[in-house]
Structure formats: C-alpha cells, structure tokens
Design a protein that fits this description.
alpha/beta, three-stranded mixed sheet, transport, 2 domains, D-Maltodextrin-Binding Protein, domain 2, 11 strands
Length: about 325
C-alpha cells in the first residue's frame, strides 16, 4: 500500500510537472482590432488558454485600429472585417489575411410598440441613413409592413465613430444597392455621414439604439441578441426578405467566391436564402509570426469552428477553411 501511494504521488507530480512545462513553453500573444467578432474571439482565447496555457490578450478597438496596430507591429495579430487596401498592404509588407468566420450586420431599431422582424428594402435603408426618411410612420416603411402600426416618432440614425469593418460591410452593401448612397457617401471603414450620431464600437452603437426611442443603427448580430434589440428582415438581391441568423449568414458565405488572398466583402449575396449584409472577418498576420500564433490559428480554423454557431457566427465554408489552413501552414 505504501508503494502504491508513492506511485500515485509520483504520477501526480509528473502530471503537474508536464502541465507546468507546457505552460512555460507556451508563448503569450497580443492582438487588437475588430469588435465585430470579439464575443467569439474572447471565448476562443479562454478555451485555447485552458488547452495550452497560452495567454492571448486582445483589445477590441475597431478594425481601423487593428490595421494600424499590425502595421506598426505593436501586436502579434490584427483583426478586421474590412480587407486591407492595396495602399495599406504596401505599408505592411508580409501581412496576409486569414478568414475566421462570417457574421451578419443587422439593422437594429428601437421603435415603441413595434417588435422584431419588420421588413426593410435596400432603398429604404439607404434613404433612412441619407436623412430622406425621417419618421417611423413614413408611407414607404408602412407599405412594407401591413398590419404593423408605426408611431410618428422621429428616426434617429446611429453609426460608428471609429474606423470600423462593420461600417465597411454596411456601407459596401448600401453602395451596391443605392446609386444615391454610392454618389453621396460611398463605402469604407470611415465615411462622411449625412445624418446621425456616432458610437464607439459595436457596443457603443448598440447602447445608443437601446436607450433612444426611434433609434436605428447597424451592429453585428450577436450584439443585437445580447442586448435584446429588435432587428429587421432585409430584402436581398433575389427579392426575398431575409431575417439575419446563422443559417442565412451561412447561406451567404457558402454562395460567395473569395480571391486567392481572401480580400473581398461578400455583401449583396445572390443566394436566395442568404442574408445580404454578411461579411467574413479576418485575422491579419505576418508570414514570420510567432510559432504560438500559427498553432492558435490552426486550432481556431479546426476545433474553434465548433463554437461559432453558439455565438451566432457562421463557420467557414469547407473550401474556404481548407484554403485558410493552407495559408496558415505557409507561415514561417
């Protein structure tokens, strides 16, 4: 019995030593950028630490901030929902894009007496944010939603105040569906808004909508659900009104085609059941990244994908996942 106890103690000590050794060898990582995927990323980082001991410190400062940080090499990875432009890449030679998941940008609102799922067309959304439709009982909104009684409450549009990949997805969509929007505002991480107030990050815009009667804004799906903010079904290119969900985000992602470097915004999908304001989100990494980052990326693109649905993101399509894993394998 004495020797059995000694064997158990020795086995426990060996296991503890192995665990401590694994933690000692694991590198810490730092990242910064998009708020769009932050709920999922934080869960990933917690689970990866539990599995490997590697600490990942992520600051959700917006896609624009993430691009600046990775360009300055002040972090190990950046995160952005907006692909870097050619000009931005020229300042950060060696950076590649790794898609991680897809997500939906929803049109969320706070209208007294009106529940979730109102229908909005592309042109109506554009004209609300252009300041052409200013009351919730406007005839164009009412016509799309027979049986719904809208109040005469004024519409208060909200947008991002920081450089934002969520803004890039939303404004790219509007530029594709509205000539007036394309001519007057255009697309980008930061644009000159015609009307409305800005909030910092997805959390900031969600807070503005929730606390303002008549408010409307664009936020990632998870933030609307978490904050219990109603959001609209949006008409897609096939003429169908599609409610944002994991299924409709997946349909849009599956129907997309990405170039070799993955740099594309996939809004205005042609998939019949696809939600039209959908985008991939990316991690921005240098080819000579730390070995631990390569390990994390491989984990995120495989085991981590199973966590996406629970937090209302869409897993990568199989073809995109395989290409992303090949890109990670090419890291030095």
């Amino acid at each position: 019995m004495f020797f059995n106890k000694l064997n158990k103690i020795a086995a426990t000590a060996l296991a503890l030593t192995s665990l401590l050794a694994a933690g000692a060898h694991a590198q810490s990582l730092t990242g910064a950028g998009a708020t769009f995927p932050a709920p999922l990323y934080q869960k990933w980082f917690q689970q990866y630490k539990a599995k490997t001991g590697a600490e990942i410190n992520y600051q959700a400062i917006g896609s624009g901030g993430g691009i600046k940080a990775i360009t300055a090499r002040s972090v190990d990875f950046g995160a952005s929902d907006a692909p870097m432009s050619d000009a931005e890449l020229a300042k950060a030679p060696g950076v590649i894009h790794i898609p991680t998941v897809a997500g939906a940008v929803v049109v969320a609102y706070n209208v007294p007496g009106v529940g979730p799922g109102i229908k909005l067309t592309q042109d109506v959304i554009a004209d609300i944010f252009l300041g052409k439709i200013t009351k919730w009982d406007d005839g164009r909104i009412a016509k799309l939603n027979p049986g719904t009684k809208f109040p005469s409450t004024g519409i208060a549009p909200f947008h991002r105040s920081d450089g934002s990949g969520t803004t890039n997805i939303f404004t790219t969509f509007l530029s594709e569906v509205s000539g007036d929007w394309k001519d007057q505002v255009g697309a980008g991480k930061s644009v000159k808004w015609v009307k409305g107030l800005g909030g910092k990050g997805n959390p900031g815009v969600a807070a503005l909508i929730k606390q303002t009667e008549g408010g409307i804004g664009y936020i990632e799906l998870a933030y609307a659900v978490t904050n219990v903010i109603p959001y609209a079904a949006v008409r897609n290119a096939k003429g169908n009104f599609i409610y944002p969900s994991v299924a409709s985000t997946t349909a849009a992602a599956d129907g997309s085609t990405l170039p070799a470097d993955f740099r594309k915004v996939i809004t205005n999908t042609k998939a019949a059941q696809g939600y039209p304001i959908t985008g991939f989100t990316f991690l921005l990494v240098y080819r000579d990244s730390k070995p631990e980052l390569k390990k994390f990326l491989q984990w995120a693109l495989t085991d981590g994908q199973s966590q996406a649905d629970d937090l209302l993101y869409a897993k990568l399509p199989d073809s995109v996942q395989k290409r992303a894993l090949a890109a990670v394998a090419s890291l030095k």
